[in-house]
Amino acid sequence: MSRTTQGTPAVPGPASPPGGPAAAAGPEEARAAFRAGSTAPTSGWAPGCTQVNIISVPRDWAYDVLLFCQRNPRPCPVLDVTDPGETSTVLAPGADLRTDLPAYRVWEDGELVEEPEEVTGRWRNDLVTFLIGCSFTFEWALAGAGVPLRHLEQERNVPMYVTDRPCRPAGQMHGPMVVSMRPVPEELVGTAARITGRMPAVHGAPVHSGDPSRIGIADLGSPDFGDAVDARPGDVPVFWACGVTPQAAVMASRPPFAITHAPGRMFITDVRDERYLVP
Amino acid sequence: MSRTTQGTPAVPGPASPPGGPAAAAGPEEARAAFRAGSTAPTSGWAPGCTQVNIISVPRDWAYDVLLFCQRNPRPCPVLDVTDPGETSTVLAPGADLRTDLPAYRVWEDGELVEEPEEVTGRWRNDLVTFLIGCSFTFEWALAGAGVPLRHLEQERNVPMYVTDRPCRPAGQMHGPMVVSMRPVPEELVGTAARITGRMPAVHGAPVHSGDPSRIGIADLGSPDFGDAVDARPGDVPVFWACGVTPQAAVMASRPPFAITHAPGRMFITDVRDERYLVP
Protein backbone atom coordinates (compact mmCIF):
# COMPACT_ATOMS: atom_id res chain seq x y z
CA MET A 1 0.00 0.00 0.00
CA SER A 2 1.59 3.26 -1.08
CA ARG A 3 2.15 5.75 1.71
CA THR A 4 1.96 8.57 -0.78
CA THR A 5 -1.76 8.08 -1.20
CA GLN A 6 -2.42 7.87 2.52
CA GLY A 7 -0.98 11.00 4.11
CA THR A 8 -2.63 14.08 5.50
CA PRO A 9 -5.07 15.52 2.96
CA ALA A 10 -3.66 18.10 0.59
CA VAL A 11 -6.24 20.61 1.85
CA PRO A 12 -4.78 22.01 5.09
CA GLY A 13 -6.78 24.07 7.54
CA PRO A 14 -7.30 24.93 11.18
CA ALA A 15 -9.29 22.66 13.49
CA SER A 16 -11.76 25.39 14.43
CA PRO A 17 -14.29 27.00 12.15
CA PRO A 18 -13.66 30.48 10.79
CA GLY A 19 -15.76 33.27 12.25
CA GLY A 20 -15.91 31.77 15.73
CA PRO A 21 -18.66 29.83 17.46
CA ALA A 22 -21.50 31.77 15.84
CA ALA A 23 -20.45 30.59 12.38
CA ALA A 24 -20.51 27.02 13.67
CA ALA A 25 -23.98 27.22 15.15
CA GLY A 26 -25.92 24.84 12.98
CA PRO A 27 -25.39 21.98 10.56
CA GLU A 28 -27.04 23.83 7.68
CA GLU A 29 -24.71 26.81 8.11
CA ALA A 30 -21.70 24.48 8.28
CA ARG A 31 -22.69 22.63 5.12
CA ALA A 32 -23.32 25.94 3.35
CA ALA A 33 -19.79 27.08 4.22
CA PHE A 34 -18.31 23.90 2.78
CA ARG A 35 -20.53 24.13 -0.27
CA ALA A 36 -19.22 27.67 -0.73
CA GLY A 37 -15.64 26.44 -0.77
CA SER A 38 -14.26 26.04 2.76
CA THR A 39 -11.94 23.04 2.98
CA ALA A 40 -11.40 23.18 6.75
CA PRO A 41 -11.46 20.04 8.91
CA THR A 42 -14.91 19.65 10.42
CA SER A 43 -13.86 19.06 14.02
CA GLY A 44 -15.51 21.75 16.15
CA TRP A 45 -18.14 22.62 13.54
CA ALA A 46 -21.86 22.36 14.41
CA PRO A 47 -21.17 21.08 17.92
CA GLY A 48 -23.65 18.44 19.04
CA CYS A 49 -24.44 17.29 15.50
CA THR A 50 -23.23 13.90 14.35
CA GLN A 51 -20.46 13.87 11.77
CA VAL A 52 -20.08 10.83 9.52
CA ASN A 53 -17.60 9.15 7.21
CA ILE A 54 -18.70 8.82 3.59
CA ILE A 55 -17.99 6.14 1.00
CA SER A 56 -19.77 5.90 -2.37
CA VAL A 57 -19.32 2.84 -4.58
CA PRO A 58 -21.04 1.53 -7.73
CA ARG A 59 -24.16 -0.54 -7.09
CA ASP A 60 -22.45 -3.79 -8.03
CA TRP A 61 -20.01 -3.31 -5.13
CA ALA A 62 -22.62 -2.17 -2.62
CA TYR A 63 -23.47 -5.61 -1.23
CA ASP A 64 -19.84 -6.37 -0.47
CA VAL A 65 -19.36 -2.98 1.20
CA LEU A 66 -22.55 -3.33 3.26
CA LEU A 67 -21.61 -6.87 4.29
CA PHE A 68 -18.06 -5.75 5.10
CA CYS A 69 -19.53 -3.11 7.40
CA GLN A 70 -21.93 -5.61 9.01
CA ARG A 71 -19.04 -7.98 9.67
CA ASN A 72 -16.82 -5.23 11.07
CA PRO A 73 -19.19 -3.09 13.13
CA ARG A 74 -16.53 -1.56 15.38
CA PRO A 75 -14.69 0.28 12.57
CA CYS A 76 -17.70 0.47 10.18
CA PRO A 77 -20.96 1.27 12.00
CA VAL A 78 -23.45 2.09 9.23
CA LEU A 79 -25.82 4.97 10.07
CA ASP A 80 -27.46 5.22 6.63
CA VAL A 81 -27.23 3.82 3.09
CA THR A 82 -28.70 5.68 0.12
CA ASP A 83 -30.49 4.23 -2.87
CA PRO A 84 -28.40 4.18 -6.08
CA GLY A 85 -27.72 7.66 -7.44
CA GLU A 86 -29.38 9.40 -4.51
CA THR A 87 -27.59 12.60 -3.45
CA SER A 88 -29.27 13.12 -0.07
CA THR A 89 -29.76 11.16 3.15
CA VAL A 90 -32.40 10.82 5.84
CA LEU A 91 -29.75 12.01 8.31
CA ALA A 92 -29.75 15.48 6.71
CA PRO A 93 -32.74 16.06 4.44
CA GLY A 94 -31.95 18.80 1.90
CA ALA A 95 -28.20 18.40 2.08
CA ASP A 96 -26.28 17.46 -1.07
CA LEU A 97 -23.76 14.68 -0.58
CA ARG A 98 -21.86 15.82 -3.70
CA THR A 99 -21.04 19.34 -2.51
CA ASP A 100 -21.57 19.70 1.23
CA LEU A 101 -18.31 18.18 2.51
CA PRO A 102 -15.12 20.27 2.75
CA ALA A 103 -13.11 17.85 0.61
CA TYR A 104 -13.45 14.48 -1.10
CA ARG A 105 -11.19 11.73 -2.35
CA VAL A 106 -11.82 10.08 -5.72
CA TRP A 107 -10.46 6.56 -6.19
CA GLU A 108 -9.96 4.51 -9.35
CA ASP A 109 -8.92 0.86 -9.05
CA GLY A 110 -7.89 1.53 -5.44
CA GLU A 111 -5.65 4.48 -6.32
CA LEU A 112 -6.28 8.01 -5.08
CA VAL A 113 -6.61 10.09 -8.25
CA GLU A 114 -8.08 13.38 -7.08
CA GLU A 115 -8.95 15.32 -3.93
CA PRO A 116 -11.59 17.82 -5.06
CA GLU A 117 -13.78 20.21 -3.06
CA GLU A 118 -16.93 18.82 -4.66
CA VAL A 119 -17.75 15.80 -6.82
CA THR A 120 -20.74 16.89 -8.91
CA GLY A 121 -18.78 16.26 -12.11
CA ARG A 122 -17.64 12.84 -10.94
CA TRP A 123 -21.08 11.66 -9.78
CA ARG A 124 -22.64 8.53 -11.28
CA ASN A 125 -26.23 7.38 -11.17
CA ASP A 126 -25.21 3.94 -9.90
CA LEU A 127 -23.40 5.22 -6.80
CA VAL A 128 -24.59 3.94 -3.42
CA THR A 129 -23.40 6.07 -0.49
CA PHE A 130 -22.63 4.67 2.96
CA LEU A 131 -22.70 7.02 5.97
CA ILE A 132 -20.54 5.57 8.70
CA GLY A 133 -20.24 6.63 12.34
CA CYS A 134 -17.29 8.78 13.40
CA SER A 135 -15.43 9.01 16.68
CA PHE A 136 -15.97 12.78 16.73
CA THR A 137 -19.45 11.87 17.97
CA PHE A 138 -18.17 10.56 21.29
CA GLU A 139 -15.72 13.40 21.90
CA TRP A 140 -18.38 15.59 23.52
CA ALA A 141 -19.09 12.76 25.96
CA LEU A 142 -15.39 12.33 26.73
CA ALA A 143 -14.93 16.06 27.25
CA GLY A 144 -18.01 16.14 29.45
CA ALA A 145 -16.47 13.48 31.69
CA GLY A 146 -13.25 15.45 32.05
CA VAL A 147 -11.19 13.42 29.57
CA PRO A 148 -8.88 15.93 27.82
CA LEU A 149 -8.73 15.82 24.00
CA ARG A 150 -5.12 16.55 23.12
CA HIS A 151 -5.68 16.94 19.36
CA LEU A 152 -8.25 19.66 19.97
CA GLU A 153 -6.01 21.37 22.57
CA GLN A 154 -3.28 21.37 19.92
CA GLU A 155 -5.66 22.37 17.10
CA ARG A 156 -4.83 19.32 15.03
CA ASN A 157 -6.71 16.61 13.15
CA VAL A 158 -6.93 13.37 15.17
CA PRO A 159 -4.13 10.93 14.20
CA MET A 160 -5.15 7.69 12.46
CA TYR A 161 -3.08 4.57 11.86
CA VAL A 162 -3.35 1.43 9.72
CA THR A 163 -3.02 -1.60 12.05
CA ASP A 164 -1.92 -5.17 11.42
CA ARG A 165 -5.40 -6.42 12.41
CA PRO A 166 -7.27 -7.72 9.34
CA CYS A 167 -10.98 -6.99 9.07
CA ARG A 168 -13.28 -9.94 8.42
CA PRO A 169 -13.54 -9.92 4.60
CA ALA A 170 -16.80 -9.80 2.65
CA GLY A 171 -16.83 -10.85 -1.00
CA GLN A 172 -14.30 -8.65 -2.78
CA MET A 173 -13.87 -6.28 0.19
CA HIS A 174 -10.94 -6.85 2.53
CA GLY A 175 -8.36 -4.79 4.35
CA PRO A 176 -6.79 -3.86 7.68
CA MET A 177 -8.52 -2.08 10.56
CA VAL A 178 -7.67 1.61 10.89
CA VAL A 179 -7.70 3.22 14.35
CA SER A 180 -7.80 6.74 15.70
CA MET A 181 -5.57 7.53 18.69
CA ARG A 182 -6.11 9.85 21.61
CA PRO A 183 -3.55 10.24 24.43
CA VAL A 184 -5.50 9.83 27.71
CA PRO A 185 -4.21 10.37 31.26
CA GLU A 186 -3.65 6.90 32.71
CA GLU A 187 -6.17 7.40 35.52
CA LEU A 188 -8.90 8.29 32.98
CA VAL A 189 -8.44 5.36 30.57
CA GLY A 190 -11.15 3.34 32.32
CA THR A 191 -13.54 6.29 32.23
CA ALA A 192 -12.89 6.81 28.53
CA ALA A 193 -13.54 3.11 27.83
CA ARG A 194 -16.75 3.07 29.85
CA ILE A 195 -18.19 6.19 28.22
CA THR A 196 -17.39 5.25 24.64
CA GLY A 197 -18.55 1.69 25.29
CA ARG A 198 -22.04 3.14 25.61
CA MET A 199 -21.88 4.46 22.04
CA PRO A 200 -21.56 1.33 19.87
CA ALA A 201 -22.97 3.13 16.80
CA VAL A 202 -19.90 5.37 16.75
CA HIS A 203 -17.12 2.79 17.26
CA GLY A 204 -17.79 1.99 20.94
CA ALA A 205 -15.04 1.14 23.45
CA PRO A 206 -11.35 1.27 22.56
CA VAL A 207 -9.89 -1.70 20.69
CA HIS A 208 -6.49 -1.25 22.39
CA SER A 209 -4.60 0.94 24.83
CA GLY A 210 -0.89 1.11 25.57
CA ASP A 211 1.96 -0.26 23.44
CA PRO A 212 1.23 0.69 19.77
CA SER A 213 3.45 -2.09 18.45
CA ARG A 214 0.94 -4.64 19.74
CA ILE A 215 -1.39 -3.63 16.90
CA GLY A 216 1.31 -3.12 14.31
CA ILE A 217 1.91 0.62 14.70
CA ALA A 218 5.63 1.35 14.44
CA ASP A 219 5.69 5.09 15.13
CA LEU A 220 2.96 7.23 16.72
CA GLY A 221 4.77 10.26 15.27
CA SER A 222 3.94 9.18 11.71
CA PRO A 223 0.19 8.66 11.40
CA ASP A 224 -1.18 7.27 8.14
CA PHE A 225 -3.97 9.87 8.17
CA GLY A 226 -4.41 13.09 10.14
CA ASP A 227 -1.79 14.80 12.29
CA ALA A 228 0.63 13.57 14.93
CA VAL A 229 -0.42 14.70 18.41
CA ASP A 230 1.83 15.31 21.42
CA ALA A 231 1.14 13.25 24.53
CA ARG A 232 1.60 14.78 27.98
CA PRO A 233 3.49 13.05 30.81
CA GLY A 234 1.31 10.27 32.23
CA ASP A 235 -0.76 9.95 29.05
CA VAL A 236 -1.44 6.49 27.59
CA PRO A 237 -2.23 6.09 23.87
CA VAL A 238 -5.81 4.83 23.48
CA PHE A 239 -6.99 3.44 20.15
CA TRP A 240 -10.52 3.34 18.77
CA ALA A 241 -11.67 1.59 15.59
CA CYS A 242 -11.94 4.27 12.88
CA GLY A 243 -14.36 4.98 10.05
CA VAL A 244 -11.45 5.48 7.66
CA THR A 245 -11.23 1.67 7.62
CA PRO A 246 -13.44 1.47 4.50
CA GLN A 247 -10.93 3.75 2.71
CA ALA A 248 -8.14 1.33 3.61
CA ALA A 249 -10.34 -1.48 2.27
CA VAL A 250 -10.89 0.47 -0.97
CA MET A 251 -7.12 0.77 -1.33
CA ALA A 252 -6.68 -2.94 -0.70
CA SER A 253 -9.70 -4.22 -2.64
CA ARG A 254 -9.49 -1.91 -5.65
CA PRO A 255 -13.08 -1.34 -6.76
CA PRO A 256 -13.06 0.34 -10.18
CA PHE A 257 -14.46 3.58 -8.70
CA ALA A 258 -15.16 5.08 -5.31
CA ILE A 259 -15.64 8.47 -3.68
CA THR A 260 -14.90 9.07 0.00
CA HIS A 261 -14.60 12.06 2.30
CA ALA A 262 -11.08 13.36 2.86
CA PRO A 263 -9.87 12.31 6.33
CA GLY A 264 -11.00 14.76 8.99
CA ARG A 265 -13.37 16.43 6.48
CA MET A 266 -16.61 14.73 7.44
CA PHE A 267 -20.24 15.11 6.42
CA ILE A 268 -22.19 16.98 9.10
CA THR A 269 -25.70 15.59 9.65
CA ASP A 270 -28.75 17.09 11.36
CA VAL A 271 -28.79 14.27 13.93
CA ARG A 272 -27.88 15.06 17.54
CA ASP A 273 -24.97 13.10 18.99
CA GLU A 274 -27.13 11.97 21.92
CA ARG A 275 -29.12 9.76 19.55
CA TYR A 276 -26.21 7.30 19.46
CA LEU A 277 -25.77 7.09 23.24
CA VAL A 278 -27.20 3.91 24.75
CA PRO A 279 -28.86 5.20 27.95
CA MET B 1 -52.12 -11.13 4.04
CA SER B 2 -53.67 -14.50 4.75
CA ARG B 3 -54.09 -15.30 8.41
CA THR B 4 -53.98 -18.99 7.63
CA THR B 5 -50.29 -18.85 6.85
CA GLN B 6 -49.44 -16.81 9.90
CA GLY B 7 -50.75 -18.69 12.91
CA THR B 8 -49.02 -20.72 15.55
CA PRO B 9 -46.67 -23.22 13.94
CA ALA B 10 -48.12 -26.65 13.21
CA VAL B 11 -45.48 -28.23 15.40
CA PRO B 12 -46.74 -27.84 18.96
CA GLY B 13 -44.67 -28.50 22.02
CA PRO B 14 -44.02 -27.54 25.61
CA ALA B 15 -42.06 -24.40 26.46
CA SER B 16 -39.50 -26.27 28.53
CA PRO B 17 -36.95 -28.78 27.28
CA PRO B 18 -37.55 -32.48 27.82
CA GLY B 19 -35.44 -34.17 30.45
CA GLY B 20 -35.23 -31.16 32.73
CA PRO B 21 -32.44 -28.63 33.19
CA ALA B 22 -29.61 -31.14 32.61
CA ALA B 23 -30.81 -31.82 29.08
CA ALA B 24 -30.76 -28.09 28.37
CA ALA B 25 -27.25 -27.53 29.64
CA GLY B 26 -25.40 -26.52 26.51
CA PRO B 27 -26.06 -25.21 23.00
CA GLU B 28 -24.46 -28.24 21.35
CA GLU B 29 -26.74 -30.62 23.27
CA ALA B 30 -29.78 -28.50 22.39
CA ARG B 31 -28.91 -28.45 18.69
CA ALA B 32 -28.31 -32.21 18.76
CA ALA B 33 -31.79 -32.75 20.20
CA PHE B 34 -33.37 -30.66 17.44
CA ARG B 35 -31.24 -32.38 14.80
CA ALA B 36 -32.53 -35.69 16.20
CA GLY B 37 -36.11 -34.60 15.68
CA SER B 38 -37.38 -32.51 18.60
CA THR B 39 -39.72 -29.77 17.39
CA ALA B 40 -40.14 -28.02 20.76
CA PRO B 41 -40.04 -24.24 21.08
CA THR B 42 -36.54 -23.17 22.09
CA SER B 43 -37.48 -20.89 24.97
CA GLY B 44 -35.72 -22.18 28.07
CA TRP B 45 -33.17 -24.25 26.16
CA ALA B 46 -29.44 -23.64 26.68
CA PRO B 47 -30.03 -20.79 29.10
CA GLY B 48 -27.55 -17.95 28.71
CA CYS B 49 -26.88 -18.70 25.04
CA THR B 50 -28.16 -16.32 22.39
CA GLN B 51 -31.02 -17.54 20.22
CA VAL B 52 -31.51 -16.01 16.78
CA ASN B 53 -34.08 -15.64 14.03
CA ILE B 54 -33.10 -17.16 10.68
CA ILE B 55 -33.92 -16.07 7.14
CA SER B 56 -32.25 -17.54 4.03
CA VAL B 57 -32.80 -15.96 0.62
CA PRO B 58 -31.19 -16.38 -2.82
CA ARG B 59 -28.06 -14.30 -3.38
CA ASP B 60 -29.85 -11.92 -5.76
CA TRP B 61 -32.19 -10.90 -2.90
CA ALA B 62 -29.47 -10.68 -0.26
CA TYR B 63 -28.62 -7.02 -0.76
CA ASP B 64 -32.23 -5.93 -0.38
CA VAL B 65 -32.61 -8.06 2.78
CA LEU B 66 -29.37 -6.76 4.30
CA LEU B 67 -30.30 -3.17 3.47
CA PHE B 68 -33.82 -3.72 4.85
CA CYS B 69 -32.24 -4.88 8.10
CA GLN B 70 -29.82 -1.95 8.18
CA ARG B 71 -32.70 0.47 7.69
CA ASN B 72 -34.85 -1.22 10.33
CA PRO B 73 -32.38 -2.09 13.08
CA ARG B 74 -34.96 -2.29 15.89
CA PRO B 75 -36.87 -5.25 14.42
CA CYS B 76 -33.96 -6.63 12.34
CA PRO B 77 -30.63 -6.46 14.22
CA VAL B 78 -28.23 -8.56 12.12
CA LEU B 79 -25.81 -10.66 14.18
CA ASP B 80 -24.28 -12.59 11.28
CA VAL B 81 -24.63 -13.11 7.51
CA THR B 82 -23.24 -16.20 5.79
CA ASP B 83 -21.57 -16.44 2.42
CA PRO B 84 -23.78 -17.94 -0.33
CA GLY B 85 -24.47 -21.64 0.21
CA GLU B 86 -22.70 -21.72 3.57
CA THR B 87 -24.41 -23.98 6.13
CA SER B 88 -22.61 -22.78 9.27
CA THR B 89 -22.03 -19.49 11.08
CA VAL B 90 -19.30 -17.88 13.15
CA LEU B 91 -21.86 -17.68 15.98
CA ALA B 92 -21.88 -21.50 16.31
CA PRO B 93 -18.97 -23.16 14.52
CA GLY B 94 -19.81 -26.76 13.71
CA ALA B 95 -23.57 -26.30 13.78
CA ASP B 96 -25.59 -27.02 10.63
CA LEU B 97 -28.12 -24.34 9.77
CA ARG B 98 -30.13 -26.85 7.69
CA THR B 99 -30.86 -29.31 10.49
CA ASP B 100 -30.19 -27.79 13.91
CA LEU B 101 -33.42 -25.83 14.37
CA PRO B 102 -36.59 -27.49 15.72
CA ALA B 103 -38.69 -26.43 12.72
CA TYR B 104 -38.44 -24.33 9.58
CA ARG B 105 -40.77 -22.54 7.22
CA VAL B 106 -40.28 -22.76 3.45
CA TRP B 107 -41.68 -19.91 1.36
CA GLU B 108 -42.30 -19.67 -2.39
CA ASP B 109 -43.36 -16.35 -3.88
CA GLY B 110 -44.26 -15.16 -0.39
CA GLU B 111 -46.51 -18.13 0.38
CA LEU B 112 -45.80 -20.60 3.17
CA VAL B 113 -45.57 -23.97 1.42
CA GLU B 114 -44.03 -26.26 4.02
CA GLU B 115 -43.03 -26.42 7.69
CA PRO B 116 -40.40 -29.19 7.84
CA GLU B 117 -38.12 -30.29 10.69
CA GLU B 118 -35.03 -29.88 8.50
CA VAL B 119 -34.31 -28.34 5.10
CA THR B 120 -31.39 -30.33 3.73
CA GLY B 121 -33.47 -31.34 0.69
CA ARG B 122 -34.61 -27.77 0.08
CA TRP B 123 -31.15 -26.22 0.40
CA ARG B 124 -29.66 -24.25 -2.51
CA ASN B 125 -26.08 -23.20 -3.10
CA ASP B 126 -27.08 -19.59 -3.67
CA LEU B 127 -28.79 -19.16 -0.27
CA VAL B 128 -27.50 -16.40 1.99
CA THR B 129 -28.56 -16.80 5.63
CA PHE B 130 -29.22 -13.89 7.97
CA LEU B 131 -29.04 -14.45 11.74
CA ILE B 132 -31.12 -11.81 13.47
CA GLY B 133 -31.28 -10.95 17.16
CA CYS B 134 -34.18 -12.27 19.24
CA SER B 135 -35.92 -10.84 22.29
CA PHE B 136 -35.36 -14.11 24.15
CA THR B 137 -31.85 -12.73 24.69
CA PHE B 138 -33.03 -9.95 26.96
CA GLU B 139 -35.43 -12.09 28.98
CA TRP B 140 -32.70 -13.23 31.39
CA ALA B 141 -31.93 -9.57 32.07
CA LEU B 142 -35.62 -8.78 32.65
CA ALA B 143 -36.02 -11.77 34.96
CA GLY B 144 -32.86 -10.78 36.82
CA ALA B 145 -34.36 -7.35 37.50
CA GLY B 146 -37.55 -8.87 38.88
CA VAL B 147 -39.72 -8.28 35.80
CA PRO B 148 -42.06 -11.30 35.57
CA LEU B 149 -42.33 -13.09 32.22
CA ARG B 150 -45.97 -14.13 31.91
CA HIS B 151 -45.52 -16.34 28.84
CA LEU B 152 -42.90 -18.43 30.62
CA GLU B 153 -45.05 -18.61 33.79
CA GLN B 154 -47.87 -19.88 31.56
CA GLU B 155 -45.54 -22.17 29.52
CA ARG B 156 -46.49 -20.52 26.26
CA ASN B 157 -44.69 -19.09 23.23
CA VAL B 158 -44.42 -15.29 23.38
CA PRO B 159 -47.29 -13.63 21.43
CA MET B 160 -46.36 -11.66 18.30
CA TYR B 161 -48.47 -9.22 16.31
CA VAL B 162 -48.29 -7.55 12.89
CA THR B 163 -48.57 -3.77 13.43
CA ASP B 164 -49.70 -0.95 11.16
CA ARG B 165 -46.23 0.59 11.29
CA PRO B 166 -44.46 0.19 7.93
CA CYS B 167 -40.77 -0.59 7.93
CA ARG B 168 -38.52 1.62 5.82
CA PRO B 169 -38.38 -0.28 2.50
CA ALA B 170 -35.18 -1.38 0.76
CA GLY B 171 -35.29 -2.27 -2.92
CA GLN B 172 -37.86 -5.04 -3.31
CA MET B 173 -38.17 -5.63 0.46
CA HIS B 174 -41.02 -3.95 2.30
CA GLY B 175 -43.53 -4.82 4.99
CA PRO B 176 -44.96 -3.97 8.41
CA MET B 177 -43.14 -4.12 11.73
CA VAL B 178 -43.94 -7.17 13.86
CA VAL B 179 -43.78 -6.87 17.65
CA SER B 180 -43.62 -9.27 20.57
CA MET B 181 -45.72 -8.45 23.63
CA ARG B 182 -45.09 -9.06 27.31
CA PRO B 183 -47.54 -7.98 30.02
CA VAL B 184 -45.50 -6.03 32.59
CA PRO B 185 -46.68 -4.75 36.00
CA GLU B 186 -47.22 -1.02 35.57
CA GLU B 187 -44.60 -0.09 38.17
CA LEU B 188 -41.95 -2.13 36.32
CA VAL B 189 -42.51 -0.76 32.79
CA GLY B 190 -39.76 1.83 33.25
CA THR B 191 -37.36 -0.80 34.53
CA ALA B 192 -38.11 -3.06 31.58
CA ALA B 193 -37.51 -0.20 29.15
CA ARG B 194 -34.24 0.80 30.78
CA ILE B 195 -32.84 -2.73 30.84
CA THR B 196 -33.75 -3.66 27.29
CA GLY B 197 -32.59 -0.26 26.05
CA ARG B 198 -29.08 -1.39 26.93
CA MET B 199 -29.35 -4.30 24.47
CA PRO B 200 -29.78 -2.63 21.06
CA ALA B 201 -28.45 -5.72 19.24
CA VAL B 202 -31.49 -7.68 20.41
CA HIS B 203 -34.27 -5.15 19.67
CA GLY B 204 -33.50 -2.65 22.46
CA ALA B 205 -36.16 -0.66 24.30
CA PRO B 206 -39.90 -1.18 23.72
CA VAL B 207 -41.43 0.51 20.68
CA HIS B 208 -44.76 0.98 22.48
CA SER B 209 -46.56 0.31 25.75
CA GLY B 210 -50.24 0.54 26.59
CA ASP B 211 -53.17 0.73 24.16
CA PRO B 212 -52.55 -1.90 21.42
CA SER B 213 -54.84 -0.12 18.95
CA ARG B 214 -52.30 2.71 18.75
CA ILE B 215 -50.04 0.42 16.71
CA GLY B 216 -52.82 -1.28 14.80
CA ILE B 217 -53.38 -4.33 16.99
CA ALA B 218 -57.11 -5.07 17.25
CA ASP B 219 -57.12 -7.98 19.69
CA LEU B 220 -54.34 -9.10 22.03
CA GLY B 221 -56.15 -12.42 22.32
CA SER B 222 -55.45 -13.25 18.67
CA PRO B 223 -51.72 -13.01 18.02
CA ASP B 224 -50.46 -13.39 14.45
CA PHE B 225 -47.66 -15.67 15.68
CA GLY B 226 -47.12 -17.52 18.97
CA ASP B 227 -49.66 -17.91 21.76
CA ALA B 228 -52.00 -15.52 23.53
CA VAL B 229 -50.83 -14.79 27.08
CA ASP B 230 -52.98 -13.81 30.06
CA ALA B 231 -52.22 -10.51 31.74
CA ARG B 232 -52.58 -10.14 35.51
CA PRO B 233 -54.37 -7.21 37.14
CA GLY B 234 -52.17 -4.13 36.95
CA ASP B 235 -50.20 -5.43 33.96
CA VAL B 236 -49.59 -3.14 30.98
CA PRO B 237 -48.92 -4.63 27.52
CA VAL B 238 -45.38 -3.75 26.46
CA PHE B 239 -44.31 -4.20 22.83
CA TRP B 240 -40.83 -4.83 21.47
CA ALA B 241 -39.79 -4.88 17.79
CA CYS B 242 -39.59 -8.55 16.76
CA GLY B 243 -37.25 -10.58 14.58
CA VAL B 244 -40.24 -12.17 12.84
CA THR B 245 -40.49 -8.86 10.94
CA PRO B 246 -38.38 -10.24 8.04
CA GLN B 247 -40.94 -13.08 7.69
CA ALA B 248 -43.71 -10.51 7.37
CA ALA B 249 -41.57 -8.75 4.75
CA VAL B 250 -41.13 -12.04 2.89
CA MET B 251 -44.91 -12.45 2.87
CA ALA B 252 -45.35 -8.89 1.58
CA SER B 253 -42.41 -8.78 -0.84
CA ARG B 254 -42.70 -12.28 -2.31
CA PRO B 255 -39.15 -13.35 -3.11
CA PRO B 256 -39.26 -16.50 -5.27
CA PHE B 257 -37.80 -18.60 -2.45
CA ALA B 258 -36.96 -18.25 1.24
CA ILE B 259 -36.41 -20.40 4.30
CA THR B 260 -37.01 -19.10 7.81
CA HIS B 261 -37.21 -20.56 11.31
CA ALA B 262 -40.69 -21.39 12.56
CA PRO B 263 -41.79 -18.74 15.09
CA GLY B 264 -40.54 -19.60 18.56
CA ARG B 265 -38.26 -22.31 17.13
CA MET B 266 -35.01 -20.39 17.03
CA PHE B 267 -31.41 -21.23 16.20
CA ILE B 268 -29.34 -21.56 19.39
CA THR B 269 -25.83 -20.11 19.06
CA ASP B 270 -22.72 -20.60 21.19
CA VAL B 271 -22.62 -16.87 22.02
CA ARG B 272 -23.38 -15.78 25.58
CA ASP B 273 -26.26 -13.33 25.98
CA GLU B 274 -24.02 -10.93 27.89
CA ARG B 275 -22.14 -10.17 24.68
CA TYR B 276 -25.08 -8.07 23.50
CA LEU B 277 -25.39 -6.03 26.70
CA VAL B 278 -23.94 -2.53 26.40
CA PRO B 279 -22.16 -2.10 29.75
From TrEMBL, chains A, B:
Entry keyword set: Lyase
Magnesium is among the record's keywords: no
Protein family: Belongs to the D-glutamate cyclase family.
EC number: 4.2.1.-
Gene3D superfamilies: PSTPO5379-like (3.40.1640.10), PSTPO5379-like domain (3.30.2040.10)
A Pfam family: D-Glu_cyclase
Bias kind Low complexity: ranges: 21-37
Organism of origin: Streptomyces ovatisporus
Signal peptide region: none
Segments for region (Disordered): 1-43
SUPFAM superfamilies given in the database record: PSTPO5379-like (SSF160920)
Keyword Ligase annotated: no
Pro residues composition bias: residue spans: 11-20
Record's protein name: Putative hydro-lyase ACFPA8_16540
